[in-house]
Amino acid sequence: MDDRTFRNAMGRFATGVTVITTKTNDDDIHGMTANAFMSVSLDPKLVTISIDHRANMLEKINESEQFSVNILTYEQKEVSMHFAGQKEMEEEVKFEFVQGVPIIGGSLASVVCDVHTSYEVGDHTLFIGEVKDIIMNDGEPLTFYSGKYGKNKID
Ligand code: FAD
To answer: How far apart are CA 76 and CA 71, in angstroms?
Structure first.
């Protein structure tokens, strides 16, 4: 099977959009757009993210052993584009901190985690995060389907 067929099929799974954020020991904050995110376990509370081995984020999380998953609102589409390297934001990105971990304020939810385990799988690494704190805000979700951003209207 060719890569294009696989990517096109996976793109038919409609998702929300997150930005993963972390801070390394030398106070270097790093963010990256990601939609490979899922809830794993309620007891204990675990989530997972999947990071491409080519992404700078990989060594940042390996070093910090912490990350937050910021679930974006539709109004944060530019934030997603910025942290995917698609389009620079005009204004400076401001981070807030929860338990020393950077989060993106105004997100639908910011899920703050310690790395519980990680697994190298093919050309990605799965990080299982143990949830330490959650901050939530109201809004409408940014969605991603077939390579395009969209808006899920909540009635
Ligand atoms: P870089 O390319 O180094 O950084 C990304 C951008 O963020 C750059 O523009 C950089 O300037 C900016 N940035 C980083 N830190 C800061 C900071 N502190 N202040 C201001 N700007 C900063 N890839 C995956 O591995 N897993 C996924 O699940 C995934 N899902 C995606 C979903 C969508 C909808 C999209 C559009 C892309 C997705 N990607 C995913 C691809 C990934 O977002 C890009 O390949 C990304 O550029 C790779 O991140 P990096 O760590 O190499 O960051």
So the answer is: 10
